Every structure is written in C-alpha cells, then in structure tokens.
Amino acid sequence: MTFMARHQLVLVAAVAALMGHSLAAVPRPRKIVTLADHPERGDVPGWVMITLMSAVLVAALLALAGPALEAMFNQAMDTVGK
Predict the structure, then answer these.
(1) Which domain covers residue 68, as residue numbers?
(2) Are residues 34 and 61 in the same domain?
(3) Which spans in the chain are helix H?
C-alpha cells in the first residue's frame, strides 16, 4: 500500500469516526494503478531526444541572435534611463 493510500484510509477512518460510522462500512480501494501498470507509459528516450533538440535549438538561436538582442536590450535600458 502506498503512502497516499494509507493516509487516505486514515482520513476516511477519522471522518467516519466523526460521523459515527464504523470503518467496516467504508469501501476500500480496489487497486491502486501505478505508472508501471499503465500500458502507455511513454517513450523516455523520445522525450530525452526532444529535450536535447530543444536545448540545441535555443542555443543556436541565442548564438545567432544574441548580439542583436543585447543591442536591443541596451537601447531599451538607455531609453528608460533618460
């Protein structure tokens, strides 16, 4: 039983006790589905490749447009300072 399931059961028991019911009347969860049980967990190497490609794309854009962006930023700061 996972940490969350245990604490949910304790919470249900406390609420049932406050309402005057016994824990036997509270239905228990059938099965907790984990990520490993899910048939479509995802493609981890694919996500790693997407992340790396995104990082390379950002680095390439920054290398190409970096000086222009820096000049625009400095011009904006000079305008605000006046």
Answers:
(1) 42-82
(2) no
(3) 3-19, 44-81
